[in-house]
What does this fold into?
Amino acid sequence: MLKKFVSIFGGDPNQKRIDELAEMAAEVNVLEPAFEALSDAELRAKTDEFRAKIQDAVDGLELGSDEYLAAEKDILSELLFEAFAVVREASKRTLGMRHYDVQLIGGITIHRGEVAEMKTGEGKTLVGTLPVYLNALTGRGVHLITVNDYLARRDPRWMGPIYYFLGLSVGILQSASTTENGKKAYLYDPNKESTQEDQHQLKLVDRKEAYSADITYGTNSEFGFDYLRDNMAMTLERRVQRGHYFAIIDEVDNVLVDEARTPLIISGPSQGDMGDYTRMAQVARQLRGEDYEVNERDRSIALTEIGIAHVEELLGEPLSDPERPEDVTPEQARLIGYLEQALRAEYLFKRNKDYLVQGGKVIIVDEHTGRLMAGRRWSDGLHQAVEAKEGTKIEPENITYATVTLQNYFRMYNKLAGMTGTALTEAEEFDKIYSLEVLPIPTNLEYQANSEDYEIEARTAQEDYTGYEYTYYVPDGAPEDYAPELWKRKDYPDSIYRTVEAKLRAIVEEAAHFYVIGRPQLVGTTSVESSDRLSGRLHADPVRRLLQTLLLRHRWMEANDREEDGRAINELKPLYEPLEGLTPTMLREFAKPLDMTINPAAPENISTLLNILNLSKDDIPRLELLIKGGIPHNVLNARKHTEESQIIAGAGSFGAVTIATNMAGRGVDIKLGGDIAEEILSTVNRVLGKNDVENHYNLTLEEQRQVLLERDDIDYGIYDAEIKLFLQYFEDMEHVKAVGGLHVIGSERHDARRIDNQLRGRAGRQGDPGSSRFFLSLEDDLMRLFGGDQVGNLMQRLNVDDTLPLENKIVSNIIESSQQRVEGANFDSREHLLDYDNVLNSQRERIYAQRDRVFVKEDLSEDVNDMLRMEVENRVQVALADEEEGPWRLLAWAEGVQPSFTDRNDELFPSFTLKLLLDQLDEDVIPEEAILAVVRKTIETEQGHLFKAITNLVDRTSDTFESQLEERLDLLDTFIQTREENEELQRPQDVLNELNSLVRLPLKLTNNELRILADDPYELEDELREKIEEQLKKTSLTRMIGAIEYRLQQPLELNMGDLLDMDWADAEQEVLDAADQALETRIESLAGENGQLARDLKAALKREPVEVWNDTAKARLLIGISQGVRSGFDRRTHKQVKQTYVRFQYSYLAAQSLVDREAEELITEVMDHLDTAQAALQDAWGEVKWREKATSAATLAEFGPAAAILGDDLAETSPANISDEQREELIDELGHQRLNDIQRELLLRAITDQWVEYLTKVEALRVSIGLEAYAQRDPLVQYRRQASEMFQQLMSDIRSQVVSRVFAYQPRRWNASPLGAVEAASSGTMTNKSKPAATKKKRRRHKKK
It folds into this structure.
């Protein structure tokens, strides 16, 4: 709005900017003579001179600081004029191409970090060399982004001679399939020859080397994926990128608008059951029309209330809790997610439009370009839903390792710019999302016509045949009848038809006319489906059928003396049916009253067709070819995307017809007469220069041609073949120009005006003749969604003939208004999604910054110690808050974090639990007696804990049994009542199966009971109640006893039959008594006066007497006596094996010493122990590394960086000649560096592992967050809140993973040897044999009627 205001009252702001930049271009022009006078060496030396000036300007400033960036910006602005003059001169000498003024303007615009809108054919590739060179002088790397691999190779090879001449290196990225899965890339090397296009002048190098080049070319996805891979790398050396300084994006609207939301994902397959996708696909197929509503504008689908009820019926389960309809369970949310994707797959995503099925795989078709996107999959389960719909193999959902959208990736660059032919309609999006201004730059022709410096003027005229006004250019002051030399493209008004059939016929009729006269045509479509449909209409049979209908209509009008008045003629309506339905028989029947043949090739019909198609007699030979073979054409779509450059390049040849999706072949110009290699143009300039042709760089191609034709003294030398090709090209081009140049046909309007403008922009490049016309129907998607029905109804009421087009400015305005609404809606959607992205973006930045810090920080011990302390503080606080369970859980955690290990002196460094036990040993008694005393006390403490846990388990089982029994009996009542009301005859076994399914128990009945159940279940109610109680009781007891036996690691002396005969309370007590007895037996057998432990200890001391009773000896015995060995049978290998098992845990006893301790005191004690453990571990690593190096190293220098601790003067000293003090100092440094490497690896692994898990969780959150709207909560606010909480948990999980493994890496592991002899594995002794039944009164439940 503000720009419109400025435009009205202050003039066109864009023109003011053009005028300002034109003055800057004039300053570059002033420098041109001086730089032309420089030798090649002097011109090349300018690069070094510029670099030195930049270095002087930023010297002493911190890289990336505000001061640095400001100084860099100022010096580049100062150097701009000279740098551009250098590039222009280098281009003239190497390529024979001189930058026009508008190209200088474009270069300045891009350098300023803006979008330069330059029409097709205006030389954007050459424009890019100006800002690329200037900014590459900083040494920080310039990235030039292209839309495909072909252009990423072509452009650096084409412009490479300029950079090579000026001393700059050029890297080239290509897709992973040709570069060892992204490990390699290329450098531009003009001396490397190859017959293969994708290898010519390309030197294979490591990918990092390509990024180290001054300039790097590649596609958007290659840059993005390398960024993700870099942030998954586990070493700094494996990273390839060196920052994000300046990116110039070719076809910037395609990358930053059309593909903005395209996610770059590095992922791997996950495990899971794919059955739910098939299940939901089956549900979706069974829905009726009233079950759902489709919003085509938003491309969304929603279930109606009756649809929800239908789905629940089909699923047999509710989609929400009836008691709490505002909330859903996690399982219900999961099912809803599957269902939503199944609905989208079934009703929104169409085969052969949104995707293809090839080779049993679903392949996405890009909605804008029509290209097949092999390997890319829709996210959130949509792809699996489509696979389920199509019956192909359902590939599992992938785990995301790293992801970023193109939109978010390019926003990371310090400086961003772009160039394209169509950007102004998306100016608001460029500004708001990327802070990019858009400057529409006039064509070179328009610029010259409006400039006083060029003698050229624009004139207008009207076409004889159509009456449409067009613009052309002639020399300034030329007479009125002067023939046009250059043209402005003719954009004919849209031709709007009521039906698609009428539109298709009009397109083919126009295509037939231009094909016959030899005019090349480009037919644009919006989808692969449309391309295929239109291609089918150009084949021989449909073309002949169309010509027959035209002939019949023409003959009928003549026979009935009717004039065209725009009204429909009922008698002709049979001819307007779809061509596929018109048979020769039908047409002959129509022709009989007219006394004519329907053969288009008949002489009388040929003359009529000349009239209908507006052709001359000279066109008869090509008309006959048309009748015989249809319209030969190429189809450029997803199936031929690898050939698109070659197809597009030939689209300007005489008679060529090309059907292409609107955006196919971007970056490749369509030249009249066909393409001419840029190498040939360079050769022509080189020949003219060597033959002293004055100002040959400023000559147009036609002027160069005239010089070659008029001068006989020009020596072609070795370039004779190239000059002949150049001259032949002009003959072909003149032929095409004579018939009007390239004609663009748009078969449908795109949602975005920009895409339509891109299609139009293919014609009329650089002053060539050309035209465009869009053919629309009121049945097209855009028209149908935005009011086309109203116009169609009006045309029907007015009885308008289907064959006559509507060319009305009002309708065209409606179409443009509709496009603006769609563009606005798409932008709003992308902007809204960006709010969600920003949450993950900030988190990604923090995580990747943490990784960077881990890479570059020399000493990480402080960070790890901080993590340890934070984790210890949290654990201690939690432990002391729960006096019963907390202390021993704290010790169990500490044992897992820091197990006992061997130090450098082969002594045992104890865990914290073992340290507490050693402190409890009585020093005043015999050591073995002290050990046995601690062991017995340990077992007593552990058994008290175990019995309490068993009691709690029994109580929980009792509560569960009572509630489940009541529930099952209620279900039985329901079943009986339902059976009474159901008169349907069923087999008795089917009735029992139904009951078992309902109560979820395997009840068994006799044949007589089965008969009663089917006839009158009320008679069997009491028996059924008893069976349910017995079966549930048996199941509960079995689970409870199994859990107890698992805890005790031994069987209980129980009989299931006896337990089932008791009531539940007595059975409970029986189980508890058995558990108590087992514990008593265990303690006596293990720790009795002559128990197993005493015998084992005695035997161990006899085998290996202890000479010195230090902590290591005591610890070895304490740990060894706590372990036992059992023999068992391995069913997999069918061999007898020995298994070590834990007899008892010390943590329960040691935990008693923590009760009533102050938190700070305990934190200090634990941290002191862990600090000491780290020091001991560091010493152990240092000793190991010393021994590894000392045996082979001749000098200290071979010890690596650690040797620097002793000073450089000892580098060549032998390790054997250093003092003990120096040796200890070196060992300490070796240990420190090894521990630091371990900590670095731990931190990187923890960050990577937890980030991968987090991405899965946050993606699931994003999928499900929309449900918050049902609770009247803003999904975005809830997403931010929950994502913040999840991120805090992520940081905690990273810390926990690091802490849990920080002591896991040990130079020599210490494994305790069990002291006991091998025991035979025990087996369960619980039987089903019945004892005499106890006469106990059983509880009876009240029966419900």
